[in-house]
Specification:
The structure holds 2 protein chains of 2 kinds. By secondary structure, chain A is mainly alpha-helical. Chain A has 2 domains: 265 residues, no CATH class; 216 residues, no CATH class. In chain A, 74% of the residues lie in helices and 3% in strands. A two-stranded antiparallel sheet of chain A has the order 1-2. In chain A, a hairpin with a 4-residue loop joins strand 1 and strand 2. Chain B is an all-alpha fold. Chain B has one domain. Chain B contains 21 helices and 2 strands. In chain B, strands 1-2 form a two-stranded antiparallel ribbon. The chains are: A mainly alpha, B mainly alpha.
Chain lengths: 488, 460
């Protein structure tokens, strides 16, 4: 029941926000998102850790003749993803307070509407339901990006939209195929429930092509090299809230899809292609990092760094070790927190200087002690300094990759060095040095901006110092997934 | 049967009312008639009756598709309002012709005998030939009418020839008897039966604008007054596909192995031509014409699947496609009347000047593109799942899905124009309250069926 509440509350709130014209819309949206977070916290407190089964389940038939049931529920991984989503959305809404968007009611309604889609992806236990929410999450963010974005937004976001839909159609085809492989005869006797998919035993040739059908959808969403070409442009051209939604939460949909709907469903197919995927991921790490070093635009820099980080997550998960999977889960949280924080700081800088070029910035620390500290903490989290959140995730992920193959691990480990290079270079260029005409007058953080950054910074340390709070929640679910993967 | 009788008499009454001075009552009258027909049609639900020595059978299949077609006409007619004030004094004739062609369409979904199928197609088509040329002063409308008529009669001839060959091979026009005869080796072995089937397939493919018999479609759709183009792309297509399915499932069901390679080729070609063709258009009406070709392709996939899901898949898809199509052609008509431009640019800034109109258009485009939360998604979903159920046709679904991604490209061009391109110096498009109601109904129906598809998918 609580899952259903989590799922539908943002959509209801979106309808409400749609009715409020003017500046009230953002406040109502913020309150609605806070309520959602409170519901999620309540779910966390009543969650039984240690159980591998999905909890707070609800299953009612929806479209019986197509075998679609409205099955939702949360295991540890889902819960953490829901927690991340509900934690970030209020901050994303709050971060927009200093902007005056045209048609604010539509803007905030779309954000909340998207939240329903995101939560739906994380709690769906039926393949078709998962696909349904997968698309439902995409449409609002497309409109946010394409209506309120920058000058080149139209072709860029259009490419993003068609590209991701193209990938997800393959997923739909694979789900349809899998559905008809589940036992049962007659129209609606098959099942698209996740357990039915986990019990399938298909031959390895079939799994092999099914793997690519599913992987294509997830790889485009994450994005894994070479399916990333939509990402830097889209991140750059979108309004910053859309970028946060995309980088902070939406790319986790892809990773979550791999964990839940790819590896346990077609384990034999996955085992045939492990090396290919790992190599692609590692190319993504090195490629993303090197390109990031060469970037002059702050938003593009973070966009490419995101490719590198996601590459490491993918590599860790595809190592199919407990460390890798657990690291993937915790790094999804960390990356969500860090990337949203960094994009917000870029937005702060941009809104004061009207530029994102590193070369036209500098010396900001001189007048802004608070901003510098928050920036530094988020940045260190991102380069995975010990005691910060990035460290826990990257350590586990690299440990997973090393267990799979030492050479892969060694190359993937470059991410730590390269990450430090581009991040510190960015900090140096933007915050240190001498003042430029653009940064001559630069006010420190407002209360509103602090309100966004403080929770993020708390999370950086919380995950960094007490990762077990989160690892405990996901551990049984991850162990269960590994069992299912290795059973066949 | 009552619906056929009612429609015919209403058509005649309408003609006579046209002699009176006041043309304003024509539209309400026609809508009232159609509502009556819709009610009479629904009364025949679960009451299967045969007429004229088994020439026509009104079963649930017929009632269901008749329902879609009458409802479509009902939703199309309000868009005719501006015709009254502008060019025409023959509006009564147009309404009557529409009602008459609807009679033909009903016969096409309830025939039990190939002759009735033929007569139904003729009644439908002849009225459409006239309506295609109803804008007498426009050379394009004249061209459309002539093209449609010439090509149409040619393919009617082919269809008739096919029917005759089938008669020669099986000794009957009755589809049950044909199916019975098709079980016996001696009647299907010769070239006559196969050729007959092929010619019939070609004849009906022409009517539903399936490639490679689609060449008339873009020109005719473009030249025909938009109101009647809407009718062509919804009612005519629904009737054609329903008739096609009935024929292939019952009369030629046993010969599946013979005809399905042909149909697969037609389907793939239709999907390719429709989607690629639509993607390169700059004229919105031509884009919709090609898109209607592509939807014929998706509908044909249900024929290829030919299992217990096909019937309701076609039903649902036709409904979803028809309502979305009416909204898109309808909005196109309103916009072009106002802005005198049929390209995508005519839609620039519509999201700002007419938010309601733009929203209805967006929902329809999303539905035609098959995006979740709209009826079109489940339309495609049901069709694809019925194809995959067979097992060995997954490549067809993958091909269709890739082409559906192309479809997203051209449908979103409209949405992008409406919301993201700045408006020119256009005044808001005037929308009558009746049209607003229709658009609200269509939008609500599309979204409701996108959330609770069982409302319509479990009927048949």
């Amino acid at each position: 029941m609580i899952t259903a509440l989590l799922l539908f509350w943002p959509a209801l709130a979106a309808l409400l926000v749609l009715l409020i014209n003017g500046p009230g819309a953002k406040r109502v949206a913020f309150i609605a998102a806070l309520v959602e977070f409170a519901i999620a916290l309540f779910a966390v407190t009543s969650f039984t850790t240690g159980s591998t089964l999905p909890q707070f389940g609800l299953s009612i038939p929806w479209v019986e003749r197509a075998g679609i049931s409205f099955s939702i529920g949360m295991d540890g991984i889902s819960l953490l993803m829901v927690l991340l989503t509900t934690f970030l959305v209020p901050l994303i809404v709050l971060s927009s307070f200093k902007h005056e968007y045209k048609n604010p009611n539509t803007f905030y309604a779309l954000i909340l509407f998207m939240q329903t889609g995101l939560i739906g992806v994380f709690v769906a236990l039926d393949a078709f339901l998962f696909y349904f929410f997968w698309e439902v999450a995409l449409i609002p963010v497309y409109f946010i990006a394409a209506i309120w974005g920058g000058a080149r937004r139209i072709p860029v976001t259009f490419k993003f939209f068609v590209y991701t839909i193209f990938g997800s159609f393959f997923m739909l085809a694979a789900f349809l195929y899998l559905y008809f492989q589940t036992p049962g005869t007659g129209v609606a006797a098959h099942s698209a429930h996740i357990n039915a998919f986990y019990q399938l035993s298909l031959d390895s040739d079939t799994q092999s092509w099914l793997f690519w059908f599913l992987f294509l959808a997830f790889a485009i969403k994450m994005p894994v090299f070479p399916f990333h070409t939509w990402q830097p442009d889209t991140y750059t051209e979108s309004p910053v809230q859309a970028t946060m939604l995309l980088a902070g939460i939406m790319l986790k949909m892809g990773i979550y899809g791999v964990l839940r709907w790819l590896l346990p469903v077609v384990p034999l197919g996955a085992s045939q292609w492990l090396d290919v995927v790992l190599i692609l991921s590692i190319i993504g790490i090195v490629y993303g990092s090197i390109i990031a070093i060469r970037q002059r635009d702050l938003k593009r820099l973070i966009a490419y760094s995101s490719i590198a980080h996601v590459g490491l997550i993918a590599a860790g998960i595809f190592s199919l070790t407990e460390h890798g999977l657990q690291g993937g889960v915790i790094q999804m949280l960390s990356h969500g927190v860090n990337v949203v924080g960094l994009f917000f700081i870029i937005d702060i800088i941009y809104s004061r200087t009207r530029t994102r070029e590193i070369s036209s910035l500098g010396g900001i620390t001189q007048t802004t002690p608070a901003l510098s500290i928050y920036f530094m903490i988020l940045l260190l989290g991102s380069v995975s300094l010990p005691l910060t959140n990035g460290f826990v995730g990257e350590f586990l992920l690299l440990s997973g990759v090393f267990q799979y193959n030492n050479v892969y691990g060694g190359i993937a480990g470059l991410t730590i060095i390269l990450g430090a290079v581009y991040m510190l270079r960015m900090f140096q260029g933007v915050m240190l040095g001498t003042k430029t005409p653009e940064t001559e007058v630069f006010a420190d953080l407002t209360l509103n901006e602090k309100a966004v950054l403080i929770p993020l910074v708390i999370m950086v340390f919380w995950i960094g110092l007490f990762p077990n709070t989160f690892l405990e929640i996901s551990e049984p679910a991850v162990g269960n997934l590994l069992n299912i993967i290795q059973r066949r | 049967m009552t619906s056929i009788i009612l429609l015919t008499s209403f058509g005649i009454i309408n003609l006579f009312v046209g002699f009176m001075k006041s043309k304003r009552i024509l539209l309400p009258l026609a809508l009232l008639f159609l509502l009556a027909v819709l009610g009479a049609n629904l009364l025949q639900w679960n009451d299967t009756q045969s007429y004229f020595n088994n020439m026509l059978t009104i079963d649930n299949y017929a009632v269901g598709f008749t329902g879609i077609m009458v409802l479509s006409t009902l939703l199309i007619l309000p868009f005719s309002q501006r015709y009254i004030t502008e060019q025409d004094d023959n509006i009564a004739e147009f309404y009557s012709l529409l009602l008459f062609s609807l009679v033909g369409a009903i016969m096409m979904v309830s025939y039990e005998n190939l002759l009735m199928l033929f007569i139904g197609i003729e009644i439908l088509s002849i009225a459409m030939y006239v309506l295609a040329g109803s804008n007498k002063k426009s050379i394009r409308s004249n061209e459309a009418s002539l093209k449609y008529f010439l090509m149409g009669s040619f393919f009617t001839g082919i269809l008739l020839f096919g029917i005759v060959l089938i008669y020669g091979a099986t000794g009957s026009f009755d589809i049950t008897r044909i199916a019975g005869a098709a079980q016996r080796a001696e009647s299907v072995e010769g070239v006559m039966f196969g050729l007959g089937m092929l010619l019939i397939v070609a004849g009906i493919s022409f009517k539903i604008a399936a490639a490679p018999f689609h060449f008339w479609t873009p020109d005719v759709y473009e030249g025909t007054p938009t109101l009647f183009t809407t009718f062509m792309s919804t009612v005519v297509k629904t009737a054609g596909v329903a008739a096609f399915y009935k024929l292939m499932a019952s009369a030629f069901g046993a010969s599946y192995a013979t005809w399905y390679p042909t149909l697969v080729a037609i389907t793939v070609l239709t999907l390719l031509v429709g989607n690629i063709g639509a993607a390169v258009q700059t004229n919105m009406k031509r884009m919709l014409a090609y898109s209607s070709i592509s939807h014929a392709g998706y509908l044909l996939m249900a024929l290829i699947a030919l299992n217990e899901r096909s019937e309701s898949s076609i039903f649902f898809y036709s409904l979803a496609y028809s309502v979305a199509s009416i909204a898109s052609f309808g909005v196109l008509k309103l916009v072009t009347v106002q802005r005198d431009d049929e390209t995508f640019e005519a839609f620039n800034g519509l999201g700002k000047s007419n938010p309601m109109l733009a929203f209805a258009m967006t929902v329809s485009m999303l539905s035609l593109a098959g995006i979740p939360l709209t009826a079109g998604f489940f339309g495609k979903f049901f069709i694809f799942s019925s194809v995959i159920e067979g097992g060995d046709m997954i490549w067809l679904v993958v091909a269709a899905l890739i082409l559906a991604a192309v479809g997203i490209y051209y449908y979103f061009k409209v949405i992008i124009a409406m919301y993201m391109h700045p408006a020119g110096n256009f005044a808001p498009v005037k929308v009558s309250s009746l049209v607003s109601v229709v658009l609200i109904i269509i939008t609500a129906l599309t979204i409701i069926l996108g959330i609770a598809p069982a409302l319509a998918s479990d009927i048949l």
